[in-house]
Amino acid sequence: MRRFPDPDPGNPDHRSPTSYLLWLAAYQRNALFAGALYGIVHVVAQALVPAAVGKAIDTGIIARDQRALLLWGGAVVVLGVVQATAGILRDRAALTTRLGASYRTAQHIARQAARLGAALPKRVAKGEIVNAGVVDIGRLGDALAETARGSGALVAIAVVAAILLHTSWQLGLVVLLGVPLMVGVVSLLIRPLHRRQQRLREQQAELTGRAVDIVSGLRVLRGIGGEEVFADRYRADSQRVRAAGVAVARVEALLDGAKVLLPGLLTTVVVWLGAHYVATGRMGAGQLVAFYGYAVFLVDPLRRLTNAAGRLTQGHVAARRITAFLALRPEFAPSAVAPAPYQGPAPLTDPASALTVAPGRFTAVACASPADAATLAARLGRYTDSAVTLGDTPLADLPPDEIRRRILVADNADRLFAGPLREELRGRGSDAGPDGRANDAGRGGRGRDAEVGGRGRDAAPGGRGCDVALVGRGSDAALERAVDAACARDIVEALPDGLDDLVEESGRNFSGGQQQRLRLVRALMADPEVLILIEPTSAVDAHTEARIAHGVGELRAGRTTLVFTTSPVVLDRADHVVYVQGAKAVAQGSHGDLLTDVRYRSVVAREETE
């Protein structure tokens, strides 16, 4: 049995939907060829059954030849066995084709999403990704898998037409003219079906995106009383999707009716002509039975042809959406320059804002506008193109992996993933042993393996103080220290299984403040050279905020930490404070010194009054 997914999904040809389908077909050529071959053998064996039955009637029953009857009866049995065996093998090959195309496309969607990174939510709606990864990949697989049945149907029609022409050229001509006529009528319905399916697909993606947004922001909507407004919008959008679905169903109903009516008409014509020939003595009774069998048999391959056309239409629509996604490019191309040898902690400088983050210090940035904080964090983390430098090296000259390893930006839009809490909090800084638990020895390299700092002086709600010492990055001891630094001890102790408890999807089993503290634990466990936090204490009370500020400062002592915040508690704990207005650093110093600046004081005072 073939295993999926393949280790190497290849490089897709996404120039057009057709080229992508052909590329998938080329990668699945062995399974496609086998499926087509078995499909042809299956339908040919099925097509020869009426001929064998007719021979049995004419040479066995009517001629009273027992030997001929047994011979042709045995031929019918053999054809039945061949048909069943080939059908099983055809379906197996079709399943391999379907799974191969679906998994390969899913791999490329996941890789493209990772390659786009932070640009993904700005370029593609959430619902679009969900539909592509769930619906579209299945339709692509179905489109390719249908080739096995479609090719067999074409050969079956050709074989039956040849037999009919050999027996009666008039009946053969009826079949040869009738089949293209039916295909032409069906093709008239395929084009409007294609357009309406495309429109339905776009509206479904928009509706899915709105549903995702509503679910993710439900707590906020309830807080501001906006549930009814968004519910009304969702109802209106869902009605538009329903109308588009009805429009598709109308065409599909006509197509399904044509699948039954047109083959039925052809069968009626063939049987009527055959009966006329028998009545005039131009054809035997066995031949009439065979012709009737052929006419009935033709219904199935003709229906399969129309089904294949419908599946290919759906596959083409899905391929159009997927190729549009795969053709997206990141906001800036990654550098091909090899990174310079590591020279130790270095200042992080943004010339555009005149902001410099000194190495090894706890720096806080107070922004007059929250938008400035997001903009600066994106530039400093290289999520947008900028002239930011780390030491003497522009971030533009560093590979993305190197930047992500040395600089971590954590904000309140980050998600908690489902799974064991211990593994979720370890993040990339884990050093797990064979049993999944972190080795106490920790990791070497640039991570801090020795103790730093001492013990917090404040007691956490759970009863333990905010002990802050990082021992072995990724170890269980380091995780405990990070939990205490983020004052998340009460969260862990309230769980039935503590750190081994399970996190539900998006961390929905935790409140907003709890999620914020757990995300902070995860960021601290990563232990990057530069840690950038955006409003890490906005969802906690002032008492907890003070303990977190103290704990993070102790835990990150000697490491570069930058916090965007307007909280007086955090600003007072920082080694250095920078005030930003209009995306420019306009003042800097200690919190106490900056309080003399009316602009800075107004931002901090607003925070205190709120």
Automatic annotation (TrEMBL):
The keyword ATP-binding belongs to this UniProt entry's keyword annotation: yes
Amino acid composition bias (Basic and acidic residues), ranges on this chain: 446-458
Pfam families: ABC_membrane, ABC_tran
Domain ABC transmembrane type-1: 33-314
InterPro entries linked: ABC1_TM_dom (IPR011527), ABC1_TM_sf (IPR036640), ABC_transporter-like_ATP-bd (IPR003439), ABC_transporter-like_CS (IPR017871), P-loop_NTPase (IPR027417), Type_1_exporter (IPR039421)
SUPFAM superfamilies reported in the protein's UniProt record: ABC transporter transmembrane region, P-loop containing nucleoside triphosphate hydrolases
PANTHER family (alphabetical): ATP-BINDING CASSETTE SUB-FAMILY B MEMBER 10, MITOCHONDRIAL, ATP-DEPENDENT PERMEASE MDL1, MITOCHONDRIAL
Compartment(s): Cell membrane
GO molecular function, one term: ATP hydrolysis activity
Keyword Transcription among record annotations: no
Topology in the lipid bilayer: Multi-pass membrane protein
Span list, region Disordered: 424-465
Residues covered by the ABC transporter domain: 328-607
Organism of origin: Streptomyces malaysiensis subsp. samsunensis
Name of the molecule in the record: ABC transporter ATP-binding protein/permease
Membrane-crossing residue ranges in chain numbering: 31-49, 69-89, 147-165, 171-190, 260-279
UniProt xrefs under Gene3D superfamilies: ABC transporter type 1, transmembrane domain, P-loop containing nucleotide triphosphate hydrolases
Keywords: ATP-binding, Membrane, Nucleotide-binding, Transmembrane, Transmembrane helix
GO CC, one annotated term: plasma membrane
Residue ranges, compositional bias (Low complexity): 431-441
